[in-house]
Amino acid sequence: MIKFDCLTLFPKMVGSILSDSILKRAIENKLLEVNFIDFRSFSKMKHKNVDDSPYGGGAGMVLMAPPIYEAIHSINDNDKAFKILLTPQGEKYTEKTAKMLASKEHIILICGHYEGFDERIRSFADMELSIGDYVLTGGEIAAMAIIDSVSRLIPGVLHNDMSAPTDTFENNLIEFPQYTKPYDFMGMKVPDVLISGNHQEIDKWRQAESLKKTKEKRPDLLKEGNN
Ligand code: ADE
């Protein structure tokens, strides 16, 4: 069981992934819990503003620290939860981080919006994560990526518990090629070894293909320490 509390101004956006069959079933089976906290409701400003112009001047608005602080502290056992700030300045998110997070019981995700955060918000988080070197309009898409990729690692969430260990990025490798019917699609045939029935040969072929594919597509994964 893993619990996510997601601080966002757009709960419906992040919530949309929970209607997907796999995560929906995980929630029904009590393997996953996801709550949304709209931190606007913690604003003490007259118009429930959560952002203001930057000290020192400049364009854009900056997310204020107090509503985020109050929202975090409204969560039960927030002191024991692992808190993550989604930001393009964060450490790059990988499957290795997903596995580390899958061992946690309670994760708080803080999604910013607007042009930036008040720097003091960073002190609330245990970790800052980025899903890639590009700038999104907010942390919601990153939070969705994290909830989805961590949840599928929780035992029982995937239909077939064997599928996670052979996935791409396991052992720093890309997954081997997969085929299903038809045998011949527009002249492109399924490799003979896969219909040979020889499972030793099939395993050998898959390992070799996995390595070949990784060398071709993602040689960076083969360098020690990556992923
Ligand atoms: N917020 C804006 N851009 C982001 C990114 N690339 N990763 C995580 N959070 C973000």
What can you tell me about this protein's structure?
By secondary structure, this protein is α/β, with parallel strands linked by helices. It has two domains: 2-151, SPOUT methyltransferase, trefoil knot domain (Alpha/beta knot), CATH 3.40.1280.10; 168-225, tRNA(m1g37)methyltransferase, domain 2 (Trp Operon Repressor, Chain A). Helices cover 29% and strands 19% of the residues. The protein has a five-stranded parallel beta sheet, with helices on both faces. It has a three-stranded mixed beta sheet with strand order 3-4-7, with no helix packed on it. A two-stranded antiparallel sheet has the order 9-10. Helix 4 packs across helix 5 (140-151). The mean pLDDT is 94. The structure holds adenine (ADE). Residues 86-88, 130-132, 134-136, 139, 142 line the site of adenine.
What's the gist of this structure?
With 227 residues, this protein is an alpha/beta fold. The chain has helices at residues 11-15, 21-28, 65-73, 95-102, 140-151, 163-166, 199-217; strands at residues 2-7, 32-37, 51-52, 62-63, 82-92, 106-111, 116-117, 127-130, 184-185, 188-189.
